[in-house]
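Structure tokens please, single chain.
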Amino acid sequence: MISGSGGGKDGGTEFTAESLGPVLREACATAQLDPDGAELLRLGSNAVYRLSTSPIIVRVARDPDVREEMERAVKVARWLEAEDLPATRVPAGVSQPLVIGGRVVTFWESVQEHEEYATVGELADLLRRLHWLEEPESLRLPYFDPFAKLSASLKQMNGVPEDDRTFLEERAANLHKDYDRLDFVLPFGMIHGDASIGNVLRHRDGHAVLIDLDGFALAPREWDLIQTAMFYDRYGWHTKAEYAEFVHRYGFDLMNWPGYETLADLRELMMVAWLGHQVGTSERSAAEFSRRLHSLRTGEG
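Here you go.
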């Protein structure tokens, strides 16, 4: 049995627990895994299942156009394993990603039975190690263009009033000018792309591991530090002591860099635009979107 429920459509095709059951079963059969008793953990941009008969997580992507991205994520996982950097692993001997019923399916080794996050200090250690690595050309990492991503995200907002959309687009245009004037001080190179406390889990044996490897790209390293800084500075999600530990262990304080506010404004705008995708389908997201938009318009926290 597959537990969990949820809905959502993509391109006219239902993306629900019921419709994904056959996709999961066929994918597991191809990979010689047993889907019986699989538990649906999340249903969002991915359907995430935990198999009950082996320590494997199965991800089914909502967007059918992510095959190349997931091929790269699997290559990144295998390379990080060869480099002995603690990150989520892919099972040996499974050829992936698979495309089943138009959905892109990947298999990942389970990190733990119950979700437990590591610390921001451990995140800093992992980022420092990652940023010292020199990626092989075979990974073919893309260049990270935040404005291409933001522009696509703004276009995908549903149910957002036109004046709010215009405000966000104008803010993006102004930030683009500010961003182009930034003088980055850290070396350009490989980044995780979504480095925050939400993407570093405690492994069942105790050590911290990086997860969600599909955002790996080439960019200024400051991008991997911005979320921890703004989560402390703007949202109060990290304590002063936690942020000090992050800075000490990574070796650089992004908040002392003159471009910090511009990068934080841009990252925040990207988060608000992403919330705008959920406005038409989630009352909670609509309320949060409205609250954050008010904050952007007024400058109030």
